[in-house]
Amino acid sequence: MNSPPSTLNIRNCRIIELPRIVDSRDGIISVAEARRHIPFDIRRVYYIYGLNYFHSIRGLHAHRKLEQALFCINGSVRLDLDDGWRQASIKLDRPNVGIYLGIELWHKMGDFAHNCILLVLTSDYYDESDYIRTYEEFLTLVHSR
After folding, report:
1. CA-CA distance, 63 to 56, in Å (whole number)?
2. Which of these, 48, 104, 118, 133, is most buried using a 10 Å CB contact count?
3. Which of 37, 55, 61, 114 does the annotation list as catalytic?
4. CA end-to-end span of the chain, whole Å?
């Protein structure tokens, strides 16, 4: 498993690399702007942290309409992706390099570093009806297109 490649062979998914503004004395700033770096208007921001159990699993779902951008801003996480035909597994471990997850993309997160902080930007507010919670329903949906 490697850090994110520049391209992925998965439908509805791509790497996002944010600019790095380096101040040799005072650190680095990375900026994520809606419709410039993030391909949607941002409606919700949340972050996952406190994952002190290495074997924790998050995700295990897809979305009907929601788009997301994920950045591991501290530590590292493995992201498993599945578009219904192809699968990929990547490691997010650079705070300025994330991934765009479009609609109908099954995803699972695991192998969290003990200090992991995963930042998630989303295109809409939380709506449980948007979630596809079973892999069988996901496959039925994407294969019917």
Report:
1. 21
2. 118
3. 61
4. 30
Q: Which of 67, 61, 78 is nearest to 38 (CA)?
A: 67
Q: Quick check: is 107 catalytic?
A: no
Domains for the chain: give ranges and CATH numbers. 13-143 (2.60.120.10)
Q: Are 140 and 62 in contact (CB under 8 A)?
A: no
What DSSP designation does 75 have? S
In angstroms, the CA 113 to CA 75 distance is 5
CB environment 69-89: b (16+ within 10 A), e (fewer): bbbbbebbbbbbbbbbeeebe
Q: Could you list the pLDDT tens digit for every one of the 145 residues in the chain?
A: 445 555 578 999 999 999 999 988 889 999 999 999 999 999 999 999 998 776 889 999 999 999 999 999 999 999 999 999 999 999 999 999 999 999 999 999 999 998 999 999 999 999 999 999 999 999 999 999 8
Distance CA 99, CA 22 (A): 22
Residue type, 80: D
Q: Which residue has the tokens 């295990």?
A: 60
